[in-house]
Amino acid sequence: MPYYFWWAVYNQYSSPCLVSILLFSFYLKACIFLNMQEKILFITSSRIGDAVLSNGILNHLVAKFPQARVTVACGPLVESLYAGLPQLERVIPLRKQSWKRHWIKLWREVIGTHWDVVVDLRNSAISRLVYARHKYVMGMGIDQSHHKAIQNASILGLETLPETRLWLSVPQIEKARELIPDGSSVLGIGPTANWIGKTWPIENFINLVGQLISDQNLFSGWRVAVFAAPGEEDAARKLLASLPDGIGIDLIAKGNVGEAAACLSRCDFYIGNDSGLMHAAAAAGVPTLGLFGASYPEIYAPFGKYAAYVRTPETFDELTGYDGYNSRTLKQSLMGSLTVDAVMEAVLALKNSVGFVVKKRDILHCVQDDKK
Fold it and tell me: Of 98, 100, 95, which is closest to residue 74 (Cα–Cα)?
């Protein structure tokens, strides 16, 4: 206890005065206020898509405990996704170390706190070794065949699936405005992925986008923002180079994940492979069409009111069930059987179902909103 607390207590009972009474009252109110601020430890993924999909239950928690202070433990790649979370206490980046020493480091960071809520989507030992009033762990009892959003909600025992969302910081929003200036509507395209097997051939993307932006077609007069992560630039640049002058917006390997998410939030429609960018677009309330084949849409389809997917005629298991298949040595796309016509039909169906102006700006959050 600070010295002025004991001084106030002593004077309160020995020789009460106005100063001691005020100090004592102030300290009691401070204690009550601090106790009202629940402490939440949220251990989430290192991958963009999984982290975005986990934002739904985090959003549920911060709505349930509006005074809470949240500590997020996640991979360094997705750290910037939480820069705008208004209840954020801090982010602890989990940089992988040999012998799993990163978990020991995290334990040292969090062991001294009495947590009100611990959510552990990594099923780590941390959630077993820290004190918490309530613990929610992605364990053996969760049906892994369900969509990730359903799996996450079941940890908290939620019957209604909470909407996933993004929390954007002021700098991220300003950066996105620089990269995508105000103007005509924007079609976002994500032609790459972190594995070639689930990447739709770039020639198909070039064909599709060319048709979409042609005169009197669905996206005539729209600008096209081409997204890609670092290391995936080559194919994306082919698409960008195929666009007419003044149409393309280069967002290839630009900024961190949070800034890319802010740029996605400025799009009016998004088409892309199964990737973290696809999930971020859907979380931003952008009408999002995911292209699937060599992955499981039952688990990783884009999640949101304005999200849909189209897939190859073959399932993932059928695409990879041939002799000699090896995911590490694969050198070609497994999505060639998904035709441009099939994707065009899915784009038309989604666009007609959501209309022209459907972005749900209320599911975005900017820390600036709290300062008004």
Answer: 95
Closest listed residue to residue 195, CA positions, set 20, 40, 71, 49: 49
Question: CA separation (Å) from 238 to 214, 226, 340?
Answer: 18, 10, 17
The pLDDT tens digits for 252-287 are 999 999 999 999 999 999 999 999 999 999 999 999
C-alpha span between 331 and 334 (Å, rounded): 9
CB 198 within 8 A of CB 293: yes
How large is the average pLDDT for residues 159-188? 96
* CATH 3.40.50.2000 fits domain 170-371: yes
- Residue 240 CB contacts under 8 Å (≥ 6 apart), including other chains: 226, 248, 250, 252
Q: What is the CATH topology of the domain spanning 39-164?
A: Rossmann fold (3.40.50)
Position 12 pLDDT exceeds 80: no
pLDDT at 360: 40
Task: Tell me the H-state helices in 213-275.
Answer: 233-241, 257-265
Predicted confidence band at 217 (pLDDT cuts at 50, 70, 90)?
confident
What are the tokens at 50? 């999984």
Count of CB atoms situated within 10 Å of the CB of 230:
8
How far apart CA 27 and CA 72 sit, in angstroms, is 29
Measure the CA–CA gap between 282 and 261, rounded to whole angstroms. Answer: 10
Q: What is the largest CA-CA distance in the chain?
A: 89
**pLDDT, average across residues 146-171:** 96
